[in-house]
Amino acid sequence: MTRRTTTAPGGPTFLKAAIALQTLTLFFQAATAGVLLTSSRGYLMHDVGSKVMYAASMLYVIATILAWRPGGGSPRPILHSVGFLVLASAQVVLGVAHVPSLHVPLGVLMFGLSLLALVRSLSSHLPAPSTSGA
After folding, report:
1. Distance separating alpha carbons of residues 23 and 57, to the nearest angstrom
2. What is the pTM of this model?
3. Pairwise CA distance, residues 56 & 101, whole Å
4. What's the rounded mean pLDDT across residues 120-132?
């Protein structure tokens, strides 16, 4: 019996798209937080953005499961995405409780972690550099 080690067609693309969406929603949240801190007009955008960000975090979990399942590789990316969903849950709780002293730094951390995951996903699928001299 041979074990399949390749991922399904489109698996890595869906994962990259999910991470990119999550990163973009976190960036949007940072921008609307800045508006929210300076005026009351940013509340609605930040509130709607928080729901989209949370949904993007759930999509990231689903994408890691779908990318892992066909190849049977390491479940580590799933653990990372679930950990990120836990951070997103804490972020929502802190936002609802109006604790900006923790909510804002956690948002910065989440954006950094999401950006790191995006860069890793994009760089792990780049073609290897050519070693030939010609």
Report:
1. 9
2. 0.80
3. 24
4. 65
